[in-house]
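pinning this so it doesn't scroll away 📌
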Amino acid sequence: MKNERTLIVDAYNVIYASDSLKHLMPKNKVRARESLAEKIKAIHSLESVRIMLVFDSSNERVEIEHPFGDRSFEFVFAPKSLTADGVIERILVRMRGGEQITVISNDNLVREATRSNGSVALRPQDLFDWIESSEKRLIELQRNRNQRKNQTLENRIEIDWASDLEGEASD
């Protein structure tokens, strides 16, 4: 894996830390995953960062999905023989990105493994604050684009077209 900024999210851990998402669990895991992804998409849209949402699953092997069709935004489903925490730890060892990697989790073992790798460990509330900040910035950027789009351009170059035309006529 190339050296790029990466955000790894212990997804179900974050969902259960969110008042707006945890009510969807466990009955509607798909909707909870989609809702979390939609929120994190603001960070992905604003910053050049790879997103990996890691989930526990009952799959036989690791499976990866790209929910928005973008290879830099991934759902990683852990095999049933390994938890999402174990997958995150293995990703950290393989990527060796140090400070280029940020892991979001309340799990103390995941946080310790993250710090041992030289990476940044943040809590879910830090992620929610980052999302909120990114959403505000995206709204501001869109507002600025719309203002520029609606501005009329005026000609500020003074040219005496009549004398230029007279000069051409006499030639």
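📌 and the second one:
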Amino acid sequence: MGSMNFPATPTNGQVFDKWIYNGTTGSWDLADVALVGVINDLTDGTSDATSYVGLGCGALANNTDVNNTAVGINALTTNTSGNNNTAVGKDALTANSTGVCNTATGSGALSSNTNGSCNTAVGKDALASNISGCYNTAVGAQALLCNETGTENVAAGVGTLCTNTSGSFNI
């Protein structure tokens, strides 16, 4: 087994790989991921077991609300008071601040959403321009790509309804 190069000047609670520094004892202990307090890089996770889970650089970086899950670089990074959101993929729901009950799966899915709620986006850049539209479902890369404020739209397939910006009740 090779040696590990731990940081030279660790701080209490600092995580390195699967190890956490104990400032009281001056030792490195095997980390229980449920106890990790801050996301520092792609190998760290954050959780308080009932409120939120984030994995990825910048994931849930500003989160102050509960029941959010983010996996991927900058996923849900600006979320403050939005709750019950799920973001999986680089930049998924990255601009969300107050939107609730959104699901974004795919790189850039719902990336511009700030306060839109109850949206589902599956695929690269699905609903990527949505800002405040609600109750939209987009399945496929760039489905409902330009939607900003439209509500209750359903788009299935690559690029479906990609030019819709504010229209509602489209299928």
